Amino acid sequence: MTDVQLLKPSPEESVFGAQPSHRMASTVSAGPRTVLGASRPPMAVWPPLDFALGAFACCAACVFTNPLEVVKTRLQLQGELLARGSYQRHYRGALQALWVVGRTDGLRGLQKGLSVGLMYQGVMNGVRLGSYSYCEALGVTSFHGGSLLSGAVAGALGAFIASPAYLVKTHLQAQTVEAIAVGHQHNHLGVSDAFVTIYRRDGLIGLWRGVNGAVPRVMVGSAAQLATFTSAKEWVSHSQWVSPNSWLTALTAAMISGVAVAISMTPFDVISTRLYNQPVDEFRRGRLYQGFSDCMLKVCQAEGLRGLYKGMGPVFLRLAPHTVLSMLFWDLLRQQTVKDKQGGS
């Protein structure tokens, strides 16, 4: 998830610039003058192109953060519906899990599900960022609560459309050798085989299994991130701990935002992973959970509240670099697009 800013930056502005006099429009700081004042700001980038740029930026970030997504999935499935201490713990934290996966599955194991993960990031974030950008250009985010609402709705739309890709990604990232296997093993031969197998067994609707967990997950995460990243960056800049134009400003803001997003999103992330990965019976129903609320109740009963926060370490470790990298790539791409547009006019 990335910071969304729409107005064209001045040529002198740094990618991570946070000085108010040179800032683009903020997702959370628009005042009454923006709402009641003059005209709507012009869109700096053509919306379909903005969609593509947002998708490409998040895909580029995904290449670096996918190993953390693999271990997050494993940690969230470990000890499924079992009381703490009653099962063997193959994974004991983000760093140890990375080492175990790398040692057992090799370097390729750390990038399991990367191709379909890129598909998910491209579609979900392309739709999410493109929709949010359009909402901001329309002035929706200028109203009180508009940023949160736009972020949540855009996130829900992106999550729904990209749900089949997340389903396959979860299946593939959970797959491993029996010695360190956790959760149900679907044993797909690859991305295309997974899509075909699920479609033949469960039909078209089966490709959207688990979407009832994915939509609230992305809504909460998107709203929390979009509401905290920009304000955190402004606070860090005004605190003058580091230079406003330094990349450290964005990194620090991403770390602060990451804490808020990890705390709010991890329970939804755990439920989403469980719903996506559960086996189905001959009637195409989940064998473990009947839906979102049933999954939450069963996890709390069997694993306690701590069960809803499994994998929080890699969730947080992934959020900060993913936010910084995707925001950096998107900002650079959009600025270059605006420069090319100005040069060609």
From TrEMBL:
<keyword id="KW-0812">Transmembrane</keyword>
<dbReference type="GO" id="GO:0005743">
    <property type="term" value="C:mitochondrial inner membrane"/>
</dbReference>
<comment type="similarity">
    <text>Belongs to the mitochondrial carrier (TC 2.A.29) family.</text>
</comment>
<protein>
    <recommendedName>
        <fullName>Solute carrier family 25 member 34</fullName>
    </recommendedName>
</protein>
<dbReference type="Pfam" id="PF00153">
    <property type="entry name" value="Mito_carr"/>
</dbReference>
<keyword id="KW-0496">Mitochondrion</keyword>
<feature type="repeat" description="Solcar">
    <location>
        <begin position="45"/>
        <end position="138"/>
    </location>
</feature>
<keyword id="KW-0677">Repeat</keyword>
<keyword id="KW-1133">Transmembrane helix</keyword>
<keyword id="KW-0999">Mitochondrion inner membrane</keyword>
<feature type="repeat" description="Solcar">
    <location>
        <begin position="142"/>
        <end position="235"/>
    </location>
</feature>
<dbReference type="InterPro" id="IPR018108">
    <property type="entry name" value="MCP_transmembrane"/>
</dbReference>
<dbReference type="InterPro" id="IPR051508">
    <property type="entry name" value="Mito_Carrier_Antiporter"/>
</dbReference>
<dbReference type="InterPro" id="IPR023395">
    <property type="entry name" value="MCP_dom_sf"/>
</dbReference>
<keyword id="KW-0813">Transport</keyword>
<keyword id="KW-0472">Membrane</keyword>
<feature type="repeat" description="Solcar">
    <location>
        <begin position="245"/>
        <end position="336"/>
    </location>
</feature>
